[in-house]
Design a protein that fits this description.
With 242 residues, the protein is of the alpha+beta class. The chain is built from 8 helices and 11 strands.
Length: 242
């Protein structure tokens, strides 16, 4: 019962007047192009959800009944490989959209790295909305192209021979993405664990740990609780561009 009350409270809170206009993630999300009338229509179909750490959001090969816009937190997006191995495709941040594929099933799994809040839309209702808003469809295409760019970036990282290059590229990529999401602290948050980073970069957890320690000894980064501080971003960028 308490869970039901919590979810009901979440829905009511989000649907207060100007709920979407007060959303911190709106200006960097697919919703940013919507005019006030269309934004109100989209808000009416929204069913906000909150997910705790490691709670499942989407499961590979299951029917994609909903699509999601991340408003808070970090989401781990992955696929399971033969033999039980896991390959992390990426990390979703505020402003990112999950479920843009035309497939009727999820071609990925997703769970919460941190506490996560999302706008959840029934897939069929959302698709109907998009069909009636060509300018919004264009915005979704832009997001799809960005997802493709990130996937290509990961392929390039996986093709690098040096662990230093892979880890540096990951740090710079995440720095740029968190900046885009409005995060401006001197500390780059790394809420994912070392195994997550390893599964994303195609390295072992031991290699990731050794590489971060080596970058810290060379005074390129400072490892702090919950993340790293970039002391020599220029050097990291050189590694990332190698």
């Amino acid at each position: 019962m308490s869970e039901v009350l919590t979810r009901a409270a979440d829905v009511c809170a989000h649907h207060r007047p100007n709920g979407c206009t007060r959303c911190k993630a709106r200006l960097i999300s697919v919703c940013s192009v919507l005019n006030p009338s269309d934004l109100s229509e989209l808000e009416a179909m929204n069913r906000p959800r909150k997910f705790g750490v490691r709670e499942n959001i989407a499961t590979e090969n299951e029917t994609a009944e909903n699509v999601f816009s991340i408003t808070e937190g970090m989401v781990r997006i992955y696929r399971m490989l033969p033999g039980g191995r896991r390959h992390i495709l990426g990390f979703g941040l505020p402003g990112d959209f999950l479920g843009l594929s035309l497939l009727s099933i999820f071609d990925f799994s997703a769970d919460a790295v941190t506490d996560v809040s999302v706008c959840q839309f029934p897939r069929k209702v959302f698709a109907s909305f998009v069909d009636r808003k060509p300018y919004f469809l264009k915005r979704l295409h832009e997001f799809s192209n960005n997802e493709l760019r990130l996937a290509q970036h990961q392929i390039v990282m996986l093709g690098r021979k040096s662990a230093d290059e892979r880890v540096s590229a990951f740090i710079i990529m995440l720095r740029d993405r968190t900046r885009g999401a409005g995060y401006s602290s001197a500390t780059l948050p790394l809420p994912m664990n070392r195994q997550d980073i390893a599964d994303y970069l195609g390295l072992t957890i031991e290699t990731v740990s050794r590489t971060l320690t080596r970058l810290a000894k060379e005074k390129l980064i400072l490892i702090v609780p919950g993340g790293v501080r970039l002391l020599r971003a220029d050097r990291l960028e050189e590694f990332a561009a190698a």
